[in-house]
Amino acid sequence: MVKNYFNRNENILYVTVSMNVDINDMFKAIDFWGNDNSLPRKLRILEDSRNAITDFTRTKFEQILERIENHLTKFDEVRHAVINTNPKNTAFILLAEKLMKLKNYSIVIFVTETAAKKWLNQF
To answer: Which of 47, 49, 41 is nearest to 5 (CA)?
Structure first.
């Protein structure tokens, strides 16, 4: 399950990924970001995926990255902080850092929400 909530006071899109997550859950979350025209052009995403259980193949993961690239081109800048402690999910996030082709998109892994927010608030 993926839940999105935009906090207007903090100007941060909170994404919570929990339980079993499949590619369709990820597509819905990404489509939300891409289709919500009220989000700021300098988008800050704080994703908590500590409780996520995923079983993506490399092909499905690349489809997710392609969907992100298609939707996030409308933003001036996207900072995506991911709170995660799962080694497999961490590997996918590190792979995303290498494969993403967008110059306006940054994704970084954190262990704590405090560290993630500090990085997000640097711009």
So the answer is: 47
Total-model pTM: 0.89
Do the beta carbons of residue 81 and residue 120 sit within 8 Å? yes
Q: Which CATH superfamily is domain 2-120 in?
A: STAS domain (3.30.750.24)
- Write out the two tokens for 17: 């990924």
Q: Judge residue 82's burial from the number of C-beta atoms within 10 Å of its C-beta, 0-12 exposed, 13-18 middle, 19 or more buried.
A: buried
Read off the DSSP letter of residue 18: E
pLDDT tens for 77-106 read 999 999 998 888 888 888 888 888 778 889
What does the alpha-carbon distance between residue 104 and residue 42 come to, in Å, rounded to a whole number? Answer: 9
